[in-house]
Amino acid sequence: MTFTVEDLQTILDEITLAVTALPAEGEVACYIPQLAEVDPDQFGIAVALADGQIFHAGDAQTLFSIQSISKVFTTTIALRKFGDDIWKRVGREPSGDPFNSIVQLEMECGKPRNPFINAGAITIADTIMEGRTPDELMEEILQFIREIAHDDSIQIDKKVAESELKTGDRNASLAHFMASFGLFENAVDDVLWAYFNHCSITMTCEQLAKAALFLVSDGLDKSCGVNVVSEKRARRINSLMMMCGHYDGSGEFAFRVGLPGKSGVGGGIMAVVPGKASIAVWSPRLDKVGNSYLGTLALEMLTQRTGWSVFGH
Amino acid sequence: MTFTVEDLQTILDEITLAVTALPAEGEVACYIPQLAEVDPDQFGIAVALADGQIFHAGDAQTLFSIQSISKVFTTTIALRKFGDDIWKRVGREPSGDPFNSIVQLEMECGKPRNPFINAGAITIADTIMEGRTPDELMEEILQFIREIAHDDSIQIDKKVAESELKTGDRNASLAHFMASFGLFENAVDDVLWAYFNHCSITMTCEQLAKAALFLVSDGLDKSCGVNVVSEKRARRINSLMMMCGHYDGSGEFAFRVGLPGKSGVGGGIMAVVPGKASIAVWSPRLDKVGNSYLGTLALEMLTQRTGWSVFGH
Amino acid sequence: MTFTVEDLQTILDEITLAVTALPAEGEVACYIPQLAEVDPDQFGIAVALADGQIFHAGDAQTLFSIQSISKVFTTTIALRKFGDDIWKRVGREPSGDPFNSIVQLEMECGKPRNPFINAGAITIADTIMEGRTPDELMEEILQFIREIAHDDSIQIDKKVAESELKTGDRNASLAHFMASFGLFENAVDDVLWAYFNHCSITMTCEQLAKAALFLVSDGLDKSCGVNVVSEKRARRINSLMMMCGHYDGSGEFAFRVGLPGKSGVGGGIMAVVPGKASIAVWSPRLDKVGNSYLGTLALEMLTQRTGWSVFGH
Amino acid sequence: MTFTVEDLQTILDEITLAVTALPAEGEVACYIPQLAEVDPDQFGIAVALADGQIFHAGDAQTLFSIQSISKVFTTTIALRKFGDDIWKRVGREPSGDPFNSIVQLEMECGKPRNPFINAGAITIADTIMEGRTPDELMEEILQFIREIAHDDSIQIDKKVAESELKTGDRNASLAHFMASFGLFENAVDDVLWAYFNHCSITMTCEQLAKAALFLVSDGLDKSCGVNVVSEKRARRINSLMMMCGHYDGSGEFAFRVGLPGKSGVGGGIMAVVPGKASIAVWSPRLDKVGNSYLGTLALEMLTQRTGWSVFGH
User: Fold this and answer.
1) Binding of substrate: at which residues (chains A, B, C, D) (predicted)?
2) D276 given a catalytic annotation
3) Which of B49, B164, C34, C182 suits a disulfide with C163, CB 3.0-4.6 Å?
């Protein structure tokens, strides 16, 4: 359970070796054709310590589609702009349902259970759009992510966005469903396009680990001394990731990994060890609830080796 | 955010003063007649530090019905006896449904989502009964709780158990429903009687805080150097409390309090600050999802004053 | 489409020959062990014309367990005793759900959708019990059926009733669930025992066809000139059979057969051609929604040969 | 219960007098703004006898929006073109759910329960579109209705269609939801536009009663000796109307009126007395499940006066 920072590189190398040696399990997300073209057997991991040091192994510098991980960033933007008012439109309870279920929405009159299920993230996109065009909103979202990651090269993969739009009937259904309760401020098609775009942002594990550092340090970006969000809000974003970050596998992730984290169907997972480190891991094959198969396994191994868990000391 | 242990008594006293001065909100659980007779305006809080020091304020030495908090103890017993085999009969995902919903059970063929909803706890009772009588099982459960609390005086309130049995149609329905899938090893009526009995155990805040100390110290009972459960298992019990400990208000509790915890409709909440302290709080009036109204508020104030939260540092 | 009464015997013989020549399809109800012991390949059919003439073919004089067909008789008794007051406790809409689903009950606060699903029939049993013992209630039910069938030999098969009780967890769950809404007037166990008993009444096709004649003649028992129920009520019982008589296969039965009817998992179906005839058919193998496979087919053939359908002229 | 054709005009006049004298109950459908502008207190009724004679009273010659009644015509067109193949895409069981529920669709993988709920009718529109434009499809639908009603003046109210499109998020959600299962052959927006258009056809009670005559006479249009559909198919369309014609009030309509019928949120109801007559009634105020309040009442009175019911003789 004890390890020194010097050991970290060795640990990451060993984990990478171990998980990539396993027989392939799980499938790449196939409902977005563009994502299905990715080489499924890649694996990368990056750890950013609270002091800014970065360690990585495997394909940690390969760009991948961050997909639902982007929901952490749009929720942060929404909290910065509207504070607790966002909870009028979206809840903060785990959903207990497959990630794109429409049943719960009907039961609860169009109010999504949390900002990390699809319906919730679409609602957040509507909330922060404020009458602007999807392009204008995307400019703001990209700008925010570039700032917290300290990297101006971060971009949207427009081919993925278009691929998602073409096969996006389920999300269109969710959006029109919520709009039917009179809950939308912007045109449904505009909100959907913005949503598909922010899901199509591409980042590397290294960029993602850096972008998450403000959640390690109670909201503070230590590299420049700027508060991205307040301490209280940073902790609450972590609590949302813990409770709702892995669709209907959130309990399983808490049980096995013990850290706040957010996964995406592109195969990425971003996790936070409060006070200590942020972690990004990526491997495209998914388990049956939509979370990276090797990514989860690697995080489980990492937390066992390091003792990192919010549930122990 | 910084405080010394010396401040702790002052903090507890101030919190007690503050919350008891508030106008009464919420109602005492009324579906169990015996519980409805409790004076609704009591409030107690106790903190046990990892080193064994105890601080308390208010009605911390008054006995109350621990109700669903007992599920943490029966789950621990089940894990000690059967290890990961228990996950064949019960899941570990938040339920996203009111605490006694039968809908989810139908969807998932009689397998409860987690051991802390009623159906899950009844399943755990069936698992650990092993052909014995309810009285024999209760002997074991009481024995375990007395050991970890280091207090042989802990008892069952038989009047409450009988009151629950009389009004227990919903739980009887859940039990027969699961039995209809062929999932029960013991007679339904015996399992129900054991379940109503362990929910009717009475403890004080002080006893409860002490009983939770093994979850603070990665499974170790420091007072006697005995491992109640392994480190890994202690962390996993904490993760279950975080994800599923407050019925359909688990997300809210994580968001506001930021600690693993388990509530009961008797008005008690048991919470864990890994490595630092265990906390027990009690006040009978409940919010609309069934968690202690003042108890949650007091924990929120306490974590703000102490900085205790697993989501920050 | 045209046929004379003289043809009827020929038609029944031909249908019997045709359906018994088919390869066996469907399974006997297996969740009630006693029913599973029946020879699955029996087939009987009986037609009672409005004037009292009886025609039959196959095993029309073999006793079988009428199961849910008994719900028509208990509902008739309830309507005779309490009139439209029964609709306070049970609805009259098709359920659109498998026949023993508990989900709908939760959505609608313990009020079953109609008197022919299990929950509804259990509610009817509670309604007509009126503080009596199950034996006293059964005496009344048997007496009523013997009167309308003009046959004092009709009995309960106690072995089947006991078999149902032993495997009746699903029905016990439904009953306790409804009781949890405070909706029961008698002890749950008594009501269940009465319910299992009236489902275990045994009759022949011939007896059943005779018993249904009052529904052919707008409520009148022509053989003795007595009104079993009023014209309006007879029509309404027929409408309930049409809308709800075949569990989640009611639409299919209306579509293929076009007559009001009620099936039971013992393999029987009782159907009504208003103004013309009543029909009883029996064959133990069931389709996947729980209705007699050959029974439905025979009724479809019969209505095609005779032109009997309420949806044409 | 006995009446002569000569009495029919008197009966209709008396019913009209009686129902229009009642205090107003129910509300006009408000979710389609254009429909909300209709004078809510109109009432019309028309009866077409099998021999072609027409009787009417009240506002029987005022045009109104037929809305869901159009689903009977599109289903008939689909059956004429594709026969029983349509049952691969749509079921024939009552839905047991509010008329636009999406929950059932999720449970049953995007296959609507029957062609008369919104999802089912949208599926039928997709089925009969066959790659054509919405205008081309509408031309065919209008042509069919004009033929069976023998009236070339029947039109679409484009203002209503546009009003429905603007507020049609719920239907858009249903359509995209089904499309997400890969079940759509045409563009979702085209299918929706066709659907909104055929719901916006306007007819009078007189036209509607005439259009339904083929369902009275086993599929035959007696005025010209043409079979609109086969006898078997006409009976099956009647059975669908009986089982599914009034949303979640189908059981109630069968219970009170006892005839196959189809209602629309414009306040119209079309009903069939096999072999005898077709009836159209219209009054805009709706009961809580969406069926015409006075329309249902008038039909109940009419069937009591005439003895018309498929459940008696």
Assistant:
1) 68, 118, 164, 171, 195, 247, 265
2) no
3) C34
